[in-house]
Amino acid sequence: MKHVLAAAAVALPLTIGSQALAHATFAETEVVQGQTARLTLRVPHGCGDEATLRVRVQIPEGLIAAQPMVKPGWTLETVKGPYEHSYELWGKTLTEGVREIIWSGELPSEYYDEFVFRARVTDRLPAGEMVYIPAIQECANGAERWIEISAADQDSHDLKDPAPGFKVIAPGEAAHKH
């Protein structure tokens, strides 16, 4: 089962920008279930020749207590909403939290940048499965919509606009990989 919060991303009234050679990705390829993960969205270019003016990241169910990193020169906004399930964290019951992170600024098309946030990886995200997080780059006259989710038997590299993702691993598995 693939976990995404893609409905909101698909519903955004944006036009698709030019097809690019590189896709938005996460620097992290794996996160550990039950821990707080630092996630780094890598944005490789703008929309054709246009600068990126806004980066939007949808936080899927199962990632909780999301906190974006402040980015000098950019405005930061979060959209909060209810979780589908309640979660216990640090002695508190969480029923809502950040569901979308929005950075607004200017990234010229010829430059690369990273957008960082952290979130707790709950057991609602099963170990061994991929988690895809829709991300959208908005430009003055278009957008790059990294929202497509690959089927179980499909390589995400075959998609035009693949959503960036990472694999969830069990806590014990992380210790054995080093």
In short:
The protein is mostly beta strands and 178 residues long.
CATH topology descriptor: Immunoglobulin-like
Shape, principal axes of CA atoms: globular
CATH C-level class:
Mainly Beta
Topology as a string of helices (H) and strands (E): HEEEEEEEEEEEEH
Radius of gyration, taken over Cα atoms and rounded to an integer in Å = 16 Å
Helix content: under 10%
Keywords: Signal
Pfam families: DUF1775 (PF07987)
Signal peptide: 1-22
Domain YncI copper-binding: 23-168
In words, what does this structure look like?
The protein is mainly beta. The chain has one domain (about 5-20, about 35-150, about 160-170): Immunoglobulin-like, CATH 2.60.40.2230. The protein is built from two helices and twelve strands, in the order αββββββββββββα. Strands 6-7-4-10-11 form a five-stranded antiparallel beta sheet, with no helix packed on it. It has a four-stranded antiparallel beta sheet with strand order 1-3-8-5, with no helix packed on it. The chain is globular, with a radius of gyration of 16 Å. It starts with 6 loop residues before the first helix and ends with a helix. The relative contact order is 0.32. Residues about 1-20 have low confidence and may be disordered.
